[in-house]
Structures are given as C-alpha cells and as structure tokens.
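Researcher: Please predict.
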Amino acid sequence: MVNRMEELKLKISGMSCQMCVKTIKNLLSELEGIINVDIDLEAGLGTVTYDEKILNEEEILKNEAFELYPAEKLAN
C-alpha cells in the first residue's frame, strides 16, 4: 500500500516556547495518517505531512492542538 502524501501549510497563533511546539506535535501525532509535523516557532508556521487516504485537512484542523493554538491554512 502506497502512502498518498499531502502537505498542509499553516500559520499558527499563540505559540511562545518549545513546549508549545511539543504539545502540537504530540497531539497531531496521535492522529492516524500523520507522517510528519514540522513547526517553526519563531515564524509561527507549521507544515503537516499526512496520508490523504487516511486523513484530510478538515480532520487535522479539528484536532485539539488547534483549539489550544489557532491555525489557518496558507495557500500552497
């Protein structure tokens, strides 16, 4: 079975330290289909790589991580 990788680029608000980054990564990693989470604390940006056969953008954005740290999708 081949992964269908997609990237979701986000502007993330409310992050102030590496613990914020770790919290987001841990919460997203609990979702089946997440391949990688890369977050730039200083820029307030994140890229979530996921398997589109298992997960979609809407499901990712509904994750608890983005209730704590609001995020909006950036144009690819």
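Model: The domain at 5-73 is CATH 3.30.70.100 (Alpha-Beta Plaits).
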